[in-house]
């Protein structure tokens, strides 16, 4: 893999770390939105937006939801917006599948915390990139992930391949990850790796840490395979295109 540099150690408590990098041309093939489409690109890490205690509360939401299903392979997904939940080798719609029982699993407080955390992350991204928070829209997919060392059973379980978010999901302009567990304490492997031409830059997850970046090819990345334990995170992504915006999930 060439040289590897750690951008954020688990033991660090980072107020704000930001590295600006030149934007790729990916944004040129999409409609540009003034005051939002990235003109300044880069990647940041902060431990100052979400507390560890909030991250633990968010993780419990993920654990409760994922306890209803789970992939046969090593990567399980829960999307509170669409209702998508890994179940065996497939996905089911949580809301259709469990109906009114959902009220026994999640509370209004859970969804309010989720919304609050999402808003704070959105504000921080806007601040760092010098754009207006109101010009950004939450976009899909936005989801919890639970990863362990179980072997992959389907292509969905193979989370470790290098990819570019804007290529995979055209609507993405800014991607963020909120980590809900600790590298080397709750799991081994599973670090987030930015793959640059000259070296790799890794982020070691810690509960409450937010890693965020512009979604184009300037931030080619992958996640290392989890070797032991369980890694929880939530991916929250934003678009500049209001047509691709989605609302916060509601406990209907």
From TrEMBL:
Keyword Nucleus part of the UniProt annotation: no
Superkingdom of the source species: Eukaryota
Keyword Cytoplasm listed: no
Gene encoding the protein: Ogfod3
Keyword entries, A-Z: Dioxygenase, Iron, Metal-binding, Oxidoreductase
Name of this protein: OGFD3 protein
Domain Fe2OG dioxygenase: 140-242
InterPro entries in the cross-refs: OGFOD3, Oxoglu/Fe-dep_dioxygenase_dom, Pro_4_hyd_alph, Pro_4_hyd_alph_FE2OG_OXY
Lineage: Eukaryota, Metazoa, Chordata, Craniata, Vertebrata
